[in-house]
């Protein structure tokens, strides 16, 4: 007989979506920035424009550190696939969520160098990324009454 996890420890669908989303973002951004920093600087996010190169000179150290940070957070998300627990998801959600909100806040206040279309696209992408992180921290809601 399989042991069923108590309902308060179950990982909700919103948390799973957030986790998978952060893994996708971490792999795409992290590997690209860390392994190919110049190409990342010149072309990120590619299909939506070239946002980073519009915002100052190339700095390999900064780009690689950015990639390493995404890879580190992504490693945490991958670990959470195996060690599924609410405390881990909460901590991971706080880490991804705080990074996402701070990243969004910086870019929301530094849009003067971008076209309106690029600025809107960038803010949408960054808001979604922040929400994915926040979603990881939000446990599934269960009714409090039991009959």
- What is the helical fraction, as a range of percent? 55-70%
Oligomeric state of the chains?
Answer: single chain
What is the alpha-carbon Rg in Å? 18 Å
Are there runs of 5+ residues with pLDDT below 50, and where? none
Explain this structure.
It is a single chain. The protein is an all-alpha fold. It has one domain (11-137). The chain has 5 helices and 2 strands; from the N terminus they run H-H-E-E-H-H-H. A two-stranded antiparallel ribbon has the order 1-2. Strand 1 and strand 2 form a beta hairpin. The chain is globular and about 45 Å long. The model has no long low-confidence stretch (mean pLDDT 89).
Write the layout of secondary structure elements.
Layout: H1 13-35, H2 37-43, E1 45-46, E2 49-50, H3 60-82, H4 86-108, H5 116-137
Antiparallel strand pairs: 1-2
Descriptive labels:
147 residues, two-stranded antiparallel ribbon, 5 helices, 67% helix, single chain, mainly alpha
In short:
The chain has helices at 13-35, 37-43, 60-82, 86-108, 116-137, and strands spanning 45-46, 49-50.
């Amino acid at each position: 007989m399989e042991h069923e996890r108590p309902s308060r420890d179950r990982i909700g669908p919103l948390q799973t979506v957030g986790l998978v989303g952060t893994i996708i973002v971490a792999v795409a951004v992290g590997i690209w920035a860390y392994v190919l920093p110049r190409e990342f600087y010149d072309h990120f996010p590619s299909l939506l424009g070239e946002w980073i190169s519009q915002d100052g000179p190339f700095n390999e150290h900064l780009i690689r550190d950015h990639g390493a940070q995404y890879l580190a957070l992504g490693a945490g998300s991958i670990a959470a696939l195996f060690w599924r627990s609410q405390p881990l998801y909460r901590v991971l959600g706080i880490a991804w969520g705080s990074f996402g909100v701070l990243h969004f806040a910086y870019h929301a206040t530094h849009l003067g160098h971008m076209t309106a279309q690029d600025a809107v696209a960038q803010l949408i992408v960054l808001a979604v990324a922040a929400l994915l992180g926040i979603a990881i921290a939000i446990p599934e809601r269960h009714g409090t009454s039991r009959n």
